[in-house]
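Entry for the shared binder. Reason: the reviewer on the internal report wants the predicted structure included alongside the sequence.
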Amino acid sequence: MINLLPPELKQDYRYARQNHRLLHWLAAFLVAIGGVAIITGAGLFIMSNSIDSYKTRIANTQGQLASQHYSDVQKQVTNISNNLKLMVQVLSKEILFSKLLARLGQVTPPGAILTNLSISQTESAIDITAQTTNYNAATQLQVNLAAPTNQIFSKADLVNITCQTSTPAANPAYPCTATIRAQLTDNNPFLFINSQKAGA
């Protein structure tokens, strides 16, 4: 078919078709922008509602905590915790003398008798007084107390040894008196706390 239309009219038709396509693209673009705007608006609306809902929940929770005297309960819990720590500190230094005396009796050499035990000012240290038949028995007692295999003391130092030679001794069979300062080992079974762990 031969197109006998004038060239100007043909050009007008071509431009009209291009304008029609451009209008379609423009409409699609405007629809896309409208969709994005609707989605964004809906998201902002939902987010705003969520924020308001969380603010309400937080306010309600704070009101409940205030009504339940949360700060008072927290102070009581802190006081109980501090009291428990103090109890543990006291019990960790509590010596079970019944067990300690039995063990000391096992390591006391012949020729020595224990006459006194006292807790010294030094933490976890004990002053031991013993009567002995001679110097050798006193030094042997110190060696036995300091022996690591006995697991009683980490160290035991002789404070003094005195023997009565000029005047008669109160106990003539044991004329010498020895004083020993001994430091308890950290993991000894004679502290209340350690005995509980060993029992567990």
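Summary line for the report: DSSP finds five helices and four strands in the chain.
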